[in-house]
Structure formats: C-alpha cells, structure tokens
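Slide 14.
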Amino acid sequence: MNDRINQLIPIAIDAIRIKIANGGSSIPKEYKGYINALGPSILQAGLIATLAFCTDRKKSIENTDRNNVLNALLFMLPPKAEREMHLLKYVMTECLKQDGQSYEQREKLATVDLDQKKLEAMEETILEMVIALKLALKTFKLADKTENSDQ
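Slide 15: predicted structure.
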C-alpha cells in the first residue's frame, strides 16, 4: 500500500492544483476538513453512501467544494475514466456485475446489482487516493476563502 500511495502523491498534487486550486498554490482551508473526513466516512458508511452524500446535484458539479474533492479523485483515476462523469456513477459503472447490460439500462429498470469484490477493490483504491490527497494537501497553502487570491 505504501508504494502505491507514494506513486499517487504526484498525481494527487496535480489533481489538487487543477481541480481545487485552479492552477494556484493556495486553497480554502475548508478542503482540509472535506478531505480528512472522506476516509473515515468511507470506512464507516461505505463507499457508495459516502459518494452519494458528497455528490451535490442541486448545484453545478464545478461549483461546490465537496464535488471539487470528488472531481480531484476522479482526475486521479486511470485515463479511461470519463472526465465528465460523476465519481459515484463511475464507481457504480465499474462495479456492475457483468451480464451485458449497461449502467443506464439497469438504472432504467432499477436493478443496479454491484459485484461486491469489485466494489471492495474500488473502495481500497479510493482510500489510497484519499490518503495521497491528504498528504498532497500539505504542499498547498491553506487560506480563508476571502484571502484565497490564487483561486
């Protein structure tokens, strides 16, 4: 796990710079709390429940703090991940039991059946990415939203 996290840290730095800091070197200090809360929430409530809670569909995906953290995680996934997709939808699509139906077809039928082993592997991967984000966060200046001139 440590080697994997070490490999993810440079990717996490890029993800924070691009998805949260908008190219700057400082971010609002609220992000520290959002990122620190993700790991325990995933362990306590589960990956799907945590992602559902953090996904704010009432606001634009680009304009909410929690969604920016999820977008940073999505950025860290392999290039095959659709960058316009919500992280929750990506996880559910990747963890489907394979029977020839797409996520959209199953969603219409209300029969989304997830492969537990795939879900556990995805949860471990995302927990590693969250740890890398927490470590990468230490390379950025944390500022109040009003002080954050780099954003």
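Speaker note: The chain has seven helices and two strands.
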